[in-house]
Amino acid sequence: MGLMNEYINRKLSGSDLQSELLELISKYNKLRSTYLLVYVAAIGKPIPDVQLGQADFYVIHDLLVDRKDRHKIDVYIETPGGSGETAEEIVKCLHNNFDIVSFVVSGEAKSAGTLIVLSGDEILMTETGSLGPIDAQMKIGRSVISAYDYFEWVEEKRKEAKEQGTLNPFDATMIAQITPGEIGSVFNALKFAEDLVVEWLIKYKFKTWTITETRKIPVTDEMKKERADQIVKELIDHSKWRLHGRSIKINDLVADIGLRITRIDDDPKLSDIIYRIQTVCRLLFDSTTIYKIFATEDNKIFNQAVKVGTPIRMPIKKSVNVVEIRQKCPKCGTVHKLYAKFEPDPQIDIDLKKKGFKPFPKDAKLKCNCGFEIDLSGIKNQIEIQSGRKIIV
User: Which pTM value belongs to this model?
Assistant: First the structure.
């Protein structure tokens, strides 16, 4: 039986899964004699904040600020990527506060996530883990796109215009909206990512590389720089990887690119913990409104997609003592009838329960029969702000 089926059969609630995650982190720390930070984003959820952003740096810094007594940290990371500047901030924070920084990859660590991982003193990966081509993601208009893909498209159209003397009306309209400053920003974003990786490989990954494996000769700074340039050249070769979101697995990284990576699957105890952490995080994303996880054995912070604006049957006025709510489960579509009262009047409970309504949950968490846990804190805030009164639970 696979891990996913094992956890599903245990029928754990969202709170149970959170406790399981903290227990797994504690087991990992004892096994590796380290301090593990889990940073995972729900890559499949259509939420803009899933991307790596500056707010993530502040959370990570806050979680680690009191752990300066530790000299070693491991970071389990899953992210679709995002801000290169944030990646730089996180890397500086980790290396400024810990002597040894390692990264664990069992899911996807793409784009800016790849940049972060390549700053590690050690990289640990499972067979399911993947990095991506080195790139930067930029906001152009209303979209966040690959800087490489954007720059390549512009270059393609420039060559097409030079060879044919014209562009089709659609491409001409698109090109006309691009400013020189925008092109410069895209180019600089690409160079920024490349320069960071070269710097970090030399400074961290290669810091203990003193003797070559085959010839057994001393390693010079020039040799480290040359090796870092080779690795970056491979990882920015989009003609080889084709897609910005392409998954580059451990065998590609070791055999084709020459990175030294620790294979987690070779250690049964370690791999069991890592795959369980990965599974529990996925179940939290699937069964709750959580879309981003920050966790250590001491603390946990979960970003949740809080639904606001759920249809409320009664107008929220100061003269009203109860509000009726109909909350639809985003997973199965079941409509839950709830009521929130502002006065400790038992008759309200009697009347509303007769109509099939349930009282607003004390923890603002609604557990649907399908297993999905809905966070109602946003609705609670909306009601209290609009009414100017506190809900009694």
Answer: 0.77
